[in-house]
Amino acid sequence: MKKKQWHNWGAGEQAQQHYLVQPRALAGGGDVRHVSEFLRACGWRDKSKTDGPLFMQSPDRAVRIAYDPYVQPGGWSIHGAASRHQPEWWAHLGRQTPVEIVAGLTDALTQPRSAHAPNVWAPLHGQRWRTEPDAEQVTATSPDGSAWMQYHQSPDGAAMWWSGAKDEQGNGWNAQFASSTPMHLVQAFSAALASPEPVMRPLGRVPPSTQIKTTSVSVLPSQLSAWQQARITAARAATWARNTARSARPRTAARPHAHAGGPRARR
Prior knowledge:
The structure is a single chain. This protein is α+β, with helices and mostly antiparallel strands. It has helices spanning 33-41, 99-108, 122-126, 183-194, 221-248; strands spanning 2-5, 16-22, 45-46, 54-57, 63-68, 75-80, 89-94, 130-133, 137-141, 147-153, 159-166, 172-177, 199-202, 213-219. It has one domain (2-112, 121-244). The protein has 5 helices and 14 strands. The strands form 2 sheets. A 10-stranded antiparallel β-sheet has the order 3-4-5-6-7-12-11-10-9-8, covered by helices on one side. The protein has a 4-stranded mixed β-sheet with strand order 1-14-2-13. Residues 1-9 and 253-267 have low confidence and may be disordered.
């Protein structure tokens, strides 16, 4: 285990021990606020009840996100309502899905779609994941074998995306996406899943697995707060920019008034 120490500590603050964990798919669930605070900064409504599960709703009320750790199997439930151009869709992610991977999908819900056609496999192949196709499914597996992404099509034509990760003890998580889930969201998820960047976990929250690599770091509370605030500030700035651009678009011309010499309604 490596150890790293941050410099320029603030006076009067006590450093806390954290760990950078790789691969991120085996890092455990993490702090749910990584997802919820970003959504709140993007204008999502927090409909959670006191001491109850997390429940967020998009500004247009078309998408709902819930996280419930109090039921079995528990975890994340994301639901999109049907619209003129998109059928109803859903995604379920297990309770131990790292919040950084969940955020890959949920952050994408707050951003405009790319003009390019989505490709779920591209982020995985970019990180040397192995692809194994057969008659009914295609499976991509991480280089260390701990995580996978799978596309399955049954004989009747029904399609489904699956994903997950497990350590040597069988501990881990699973994710499932409806066939109608927008592909750009599934790609955003696969990109976050395949990212080689480590994620941070506090002392006592690192899963006991021989498959993970940890680097010990001493972090000040003010540093953690600053990193979290930077993510929230970026979300607010992007939301403000989109709203400003939307309001600046020319409105539809008003309907012309009746000719000045035309008849007027009597009072």
